[in-house]
């Protein structure tokens, strides 16, 4: 992964933002209503060597172009699929964990910061240097406030 920092699971209040969020929330609530020991894990910015994701897209674009414009005013937490899977397994195995959680790897970055980190990893294995310029997306996005630490820790 790009980072080997400690990780933890956090509880985040549920917000209804739009139709997509309401649909996700309805699904989560249905799962939680079906059983008393369900675990719903929300996450974001997931990357891995499989499937379509930001890391693979950036690596492809860095091979194809001399210069990239990457959004610099949206922030999130890149989350490695393997660490997310490990956390979900630990939650499943822990008898005392149930409810809705939001889990990501540790740290925060803009899309531009993440692209620069991806390039640094790529340069170490022979990827050519590409200029990655940070650009503003153009409008502010609504963000959830940070949550509080929960019971399940992942060292």
- Label the overall shape: elongated
Record the strand order, biggest sheet.
2-7-1-10
Radius of gyration: 17 Å
Low-confidence stretches: 1-12, 140-155
**Terminal residue distance:** 15 Å
User: Main β-sheet, in a few words?
Assistant: 4 strands, mixed
The overall average pLDDT, rounded, is 77
Order of helices and strands: EHEEHEEEHEEHEE
Number of helices: 4
Helix fraction bin: 25-40%
* Structure classification: alpha/beta
Strand content: 25-35%
Number of strands: 10
Describe this structure in words.
By secondary structure, the chain is an alpha/beta fold. Helices cover 35% and strands 26% of the residues. Helix 2 packs across helix 4 (111-124). The chain starts with 6 loop residues before the first strand and ends with a strand.
A few lines on this structure:
It is built from 4 helices and 10 strands, in the order E-H-E-E-H-E-E-E-H-E-E-H-E-E.
What is the fold's blueprint, element by element?
Elements: E1 7-11, H1 19-34, E2 39-42, E3 46-47, H2 54-64, E4 67-71, E5 75-76, E6 79-80, H3 81-93, E7 99-104, E8 109-110, H4 111-124, E9 131-135, E10 148-154
Parallel strand pairs: 2-7, 3-6, 4-9
Antiparallel strand pairs: 1-7, 1-10, 5-8
Helix pairs in contact: 2-4
């Amino acid at each position: 992964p790009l980072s080997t920092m400690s990780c933890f699971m956090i509880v985040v209040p549920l917000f209804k933002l739009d139709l997509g969020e309401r649909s996700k929330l309805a699904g989560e609530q249905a799962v939680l209503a079906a059983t008393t020991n369900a675990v719903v894990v929300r996450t974001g910015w997931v990357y891995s060597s499989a499937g379509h994701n930001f890391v693979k897209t950036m690596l492809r674009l860095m091979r194809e172009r001399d210069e990239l414009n990457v959004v610099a005013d949206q922030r999130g937490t890149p989350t490695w699929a393997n660490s997310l899977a490990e956390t979900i397994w630990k939650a499943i195995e822990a008898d005392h964990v149930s409810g809705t959680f939001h889990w990501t790897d540790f740290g925060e970055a803009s899309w531009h910061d993440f692209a620069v980190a991806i390039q640094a990893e790529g340069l170490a294995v022979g990827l050519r240097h590409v200029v990655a310029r940070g650009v503003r997306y153009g409008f502010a996005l609504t963000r959830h406030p940070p949550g509080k630490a929960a019971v399940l820790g992942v060292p």
